[in-house]
């Protein structure tokens, strides 16, 4: 029988212990979301002191919880953070102390993606493995600076929102973030004057410019912003980051089309008909013209199929070998391979036999979608796996799981991290409080705001005046937000100069292209990302800086053009039991010879 009097006493003792950790201004109707006047007295509450499940080794002192965004009429609108110190006491020092020591915030994209995905699969001190265990990350970014991972906009991850309180624009998102920072530095006063670095990836390429604009527009900014850093970011519009780079992707990974020159020429012609064959000249002569909106050229795809998720096999013809392929005999497999080649040949005749100067009526200018469909239906090993939009060499099916949801939805974890009572999900579906829709001029995520590229020249000018540096980097293996699109963004903010290999710097702009990295650069190449953080984001390494005709560190003539060759291995199979397709050197040499004549326009 349960001892109810004893349980009641234990519960009362727990409540008294909690009350001792809360500042006197904490309201009595505590529901898991702190409200009231923020001050350093809140540090004791936010400190994570209870053990985390499956975390068996000591970790840096850390703090977590929700902080309000001061939105009038929406008292439950908060952003949730998890912060890790670089050194014992470095976050909690007093105002004016350690004023030369940097601190950073990391944002994931989505939109609606929790930044805990970044913390636990990319650049945080705790990493979730394929068997859901938690291990230490030796390249965690908090080893170089006090680091905060923040769930935003409101409603994302462990952040909260009233039912009618979701952001209605990127400007509202930026204002919420400034108010969050205003309250955050009241809790941790030294952060107000220390150098602040705002970093993130993917759709954070939209968030960060708007947040930066909001900081610049604030008469007395709450933080001392020094640099913004965007990885594989959506700074331009949908067509720019998803469609425009398709041919560059095929030049980087011709395996996608089986090294077929005719199919390459087909995509090159479609690129030209869509106006995606932009010629980047350095220094540039005016800005790049408006990019063709693919929604004006075809209505093939439902909204869910153009969102940047792992693409599904759509029927250019019938599906290829099914998931039951393992039960087929070798003769069956041989027969299916012959059938597949026959269908590929038929499709190829239809592609290259179309009259010159005509756009494909089915795909229109959805070139990326057509490319991935081709790969999954006709190009081994994607015919027996999946096309990973974010990491081309990864054709594994299924993927090795990298899922922090079990850990984060454990009640012990939520209690230790002062998280609200809500289910944590990797991506919150409608962060703008609306339903997504498709059509000309629309954003497939329901984001009503103009893409940051529209005001990047003004933002770059204001950043330069304030001594704020802009850093843009890309993973060479990312097909979805591929590097050509961001090079167009750079072109359009009037920062010229010759392509200087893997790192290019001019005025207050740095551009870097990571080899052997996909969309999630710190996950693909954690050590390289760690060094880049140390040397270029937090540091001032001058490699790649263009000073007139001189480039610091020199130039690599192999990288003087627009394409960095991809890796020669494509991985496929089931999870960790992977095989690899190695491309023969003769095939690569033959393709290089073909490209020398097929790509007539050199930078």
UniProtKB/TrEMBL annotation:
First-level EC class: hydrolase
EC number(s) on file: 3.4.16.-
Sorted UniProt keywords: Carboxypeptidase, Glycoprotein, Hydrolase, Protease, Signal
Entries under SUPFAM superfamilies matching the protein: alpha/beta-Hydrolases
Superkingdom per UniProt: Eukaryota
Leader sequence segment: 1-19
Pfam families per the UniProt record, alphabetical: Peptidase_S10 (PF00450)
Family per similarity comment: Belongs to the peptidase S10 family.
Official protein name in the record: Carboxypeptidase
Organism of origin: Lentinula boryana
